[in-house]
Amino acid sequence: MAENDDAGRGPLSRGGVAPQPLFAVAAVLLGSFLANFDSRLTTVGLPDLRGAFSLGFDEGAWLSTAGIGSQIFIAPAVAWLATVFGLRRVLGIPSLVYAAVSLIIPFVHDYPTLLGLSVVHGLLLGTFVPATLMIVFRNLPIRWWLPAISIYSIRVGFALDTSSSLVGFYVDHLGWQWLYWQGVVIAPLMGLMVYLGTPNEPVNRALLREADWGGMLLLGASVSMIYAGLDQGNRLDWLGSGTVMALLVGGGVLFVAFLVNESLVRQPWAHVNVLFSRNIGLSLVVILLYTLTSLSNSSLVPNFLGNIGLLRPEQSGLLLLGYGALPMFVLVPISIWVLRHFDARAVTVVGFTCFAAANLWGTQLTHDWAREDFIGIVLLQAIGQSTTLLPIIIMALSNSDPSRATSFAAYIQIMRLGGAEIGVALMGTWLRVREQVHSFYLGQNLGVGDADVVRILKQLADHFAAHGTGSAQARAVGTLASLVQREANVLAYIDGFWLCFWLAMAALGIVALITRAPPGPFTPAPFGFARMLLRKCGVPVT
Questions:
Q1: CA distance 439 to 446
Q2: Count of domains in the chain?
Q3: pTM, whole model, 2 decimals?
Q4: Angle formed by the axes of helices 375-386 and 142-169, to 10°?
Q5: Structural domain span for residue 264
Q6: What average pLDDT is seen over the chain?
C-alpha cells in the first residue's frame, strides 16, 4: 500500500517524498488547528459574535449552520481534487483566499453578505484537514507517518480543550475580531509550509477527463442538507417545521440520487462497495461512535459549567486546557510508541474504556459540582482522546485498498466532520427533550398545597420580604421554579453522560468484531518477551 507510486490511484499513493518533511508536518499541524478552532468558533464564540454583529438568535443559528454545512459540502471531494490538481494548488491558493475573507468578515454589517462570506469561509476551511492528511501519505517517508497521523488525530481533542480558553482570551484581551483574524496570520503560514514541504505536481488530466462531478455535488449537497436540517431541527421543532422537513427529505433524495449515479457512471468517484469490506465498514462505524462518545468532552462538560455553573468560556477553558489539552503532549508520544509495538485494536479498547469510565463518573453529577470536580473526568477523556482516534485511523488505513483510496477518503471525511456536527445537533436535542421530561415529572411532585412546597415558599418569601413585601411571594414562586429547572437540567446532563457511556460500550463491541489487518507499514513490531516467543514459534518479526 505505502509503496505505490501511481499518483492517480488516490491519496494513499505516493506523490513524491517531501524535500523538507518538517515543513510538511508543520502544514498538517497548522491546517488541523485552524480547521478545528474555526469549527468551534460558531459554538463557543457564537454568543459574542451575535453581539458583535447585532444578530438575533435565529440569525446567529443560521450563521453557524452556513459555516459548518459548507465545510461538510466540500470535505468529501478534497482527496480527489488534491489527487488531480496537486496539494500545492488545493491548499496554497485557498489559504490565501481564506486569509482575505477572514480579514474582511469583521467589517461586514449586512447580514446576507455576512452569510455569503461565511459560506465561502467554510468552503475554504473544509479543504484544510482532508488535504493536510494527504500530505502524510503522498509526501512523507513511512517513518514519519505515525507521528504525523497522531497530529491529525488529536487535533479534535486538542481543539476542543483549547478553544474555550482561546475564544475567551481573544474576546477579553485582543477583541472579538481576532476570532477571524488569527486566520489572516495562520493560513498564509500554512500555505508557505505546504509550498516548502511538498513537491510541485502536474495536473492529472487523465483523471480530470473522467471526473464524476455529479457524484461529488450530489454527495456533498445531500450530507450538508441533512446536517442543516438536524442542526436547525432543535430550534425549529423538527417535524413541525417545513424548513427542517424540506432539508431532511431533500438531503435524503439527493443521497439516493448519489447512489444511483455511482452505480451508473463509468468511473464512479466514490465506490459504494468500499463500505462492504468488513474491517473498513466496521472502522467507519467505530469512527462515528468515537465522535458521538467524545461529545461528553466537547458538549457536556463545558455546557454544564456554562449553564449550571454559570462560568464564562475562558473560565471553564482553564479546566480543559490544564487537564485535557496539556496532558496530550505526554500522552500522544506514549500512544505512538504503544502503536509501534501493540495491535491497534488493543489500544482502541483502552481508549474507549477510558471514555466509558469518564462518562460513568459523570453520571454522579449534582448541581453542587464545580469546575474542580471535573478534573478526573477530563483527565480520563484526555487519555481516551489520545488512545482512540489514532489507532482507529491506523486500523482503517491498514485495511484500505489503495485503488479505492479516494472513495475511502470521501467516506471517512463524512464520518469525521458530518458525524461530529450531526452528533452535536442530536445531543442538543437529547438534552432539551430530557430536560422537558424531567421538568414534567419534577413538577408533578410539587402539588399546590403540599406541606413541603408551602414550607419552602414561605421560607423564600420571608427571605425576599426584606426587599419588598409586595413582590416577595412572586419572587419566591419564581425562585422555586428556577430551582426545579436547574435540577431538571442536571438530570438531563446525567442522561447525556449515560448516553455517551453506552455509545462507548457499543464501540467496544464493534472493535471486538474487527479482524487482524494484513501486514503493512503500520504492522506493530513486538519487543522483549513477545519477540522472543514469536521467533521460537518460527514467526518472522521485524
A1: 11
A2: 3
A3: 0.78
A4: 150
A5: 213-268
A6: 81
